[in-house]
Amino acid sequence: MSRKRDLTSRGAQKLGERERTVGLDPEDEAARWLDEHDATPPPATPKSLTKSKTLHQWRERQKRSS
Hints:
By secondary structure, the protein is mainly α. It has a domain at 7-41. The chain is built from three helices and no strands. The chain is elongated and about 65 Å long.
């Protein structure tokens, strides 16, 4: 029998999200407390906003000239 794979950070995030959403009754006191105190993190900014179009064009030129 093969061993179970190690949990990655992305896998841990998904597992946490699943545990937070499954089985919670909206009228439950614990669910209300979680909604108030355990706010969801803001979405990450896309990499495309920080990457330069000029850098991309330069890399493409470097690939062609090689």
